[in-house]
Amino acid sequence: MADLPPARLRLFKPAFYSTGMDCFGPFQVKIGRRTEKRWGIIFKCLTTRAVHLDVLTSIDTDAFLMAVRRFTARRGTPAELYSDQGTNFRGGEKELREAFSVMSTDLQGLLAKHQINFHFNPPTAPHFGGVWEREIRSVKAALSTTIGAQSVPEEVLRTVLIEVEAILNSKPLGYVSSNISDVDPITPNHLLMGRPSSSFPQVVYQDSERLSRRRWRQSQILVDHFWAKFISYYLPGLQLRQKWQGTTADLTEGSVVMMVDPQLPRALWLVGKVVRVFPSADGHVRAAEVKVDNKSFTRPVVRLIKLPELPNDD
C-alpha cells in the first residue's frame, strides 16, 4: 500500500485547498402532487477531512457547475479537485477550460492563480478516491435507513443534508480521551469556524413526528435517526484493515496483460500490451495504458493480470 498522496498532507493551506468530490443518490422528493429525483454531491477536504454537502436537481454538467459555484462562494476556490471519470465532471472541466482559453491574455494572467486543476482517477478504480468514497458509503447507508423509499419535500431533504454535514464536521479527528479534564479533540469545525459546532441545541421529538405535516419536526426526526445509524455504521468502519502488504513486481512497458472487466464473462476479457505506465510518487506503478488492437485503455494495476511471457522458440 502506498504512502499518503501529497494532497492529503497540505501544510499551511486553507480548508478545501485539495478537495475530492462525487455524487450520490438519487432521492425522491415531493413537488406538489408529483415526485422528482434529486441527487447529493459531496466535497471533501483531503487534508482537514471537512465535508460540504449540496443537492443537485440532475447529474448533468450544468447542475455540477452550479454546485461548484455555490461551493466556491461558501468555502473558497479550491486549488485542485479530484474525482472519478463521471461525464458531468469531465464536461465541467471542459467548460471551464474553454471559458478560460477565450479570455484575453491579460485576464488569463490575473485569473491563473484562481484556476482549478482537475485530477481524474483511472476508470474502474474507485479505491483511488477511497477517502471520499468511504464517506459517501457512510452517508448513503445512514440516509437510506433514515429516509428509505419515502418521498420528503425538497426543503426537508436539503435541511437534512446540511445538518448531516454539520454532524460529519463535528466528529473528532484523533483520539478521544475518557478523562473529562483532558482537552477536547480537534474537529473539522475547529478548522472551519474556530469552534466545535455552530448548531443550536437539538430539539427532541417523538418518533411519531416523522410523518408530521410540520416539516421542521420531520427534519429533526430524520437527523436524529441519521445520527443513530451513523454511529452504528461509521464507528465499526474505523477499524484498521490492511491490504496489499506484499511487494510485487511493477508492470513494465511491453508486458502482455489481461484486463479484468466485472461486466463481462472471464472468457471475454480483453488481452493487450502495456504501452505506457504511470508511476506514483513512491516509484511504484499504480496505473497503465493498455493497447488492444487500435484502441487504448487506461486501467489501474489491480484490474490488470500480467500474462506469462511466451518461451523463445529456437
From TrEMBL:
GO terms for biological process: DNA integration. GO terms for molecular function: nucleic acid binding. InterPro entries: DUF5641, Integrase_cat-core, RNaseH-like_sf, RNaseH_sf. Residues 10-196 form the Integrase catalytic domain. This is Uncharacterized protein LOC113055301. It comes from Carassius auratus. The lineage of its organism: Eukaryota, Metazoa, Chordata, Craniata, Vertebrata. The gene is LOC113055301.
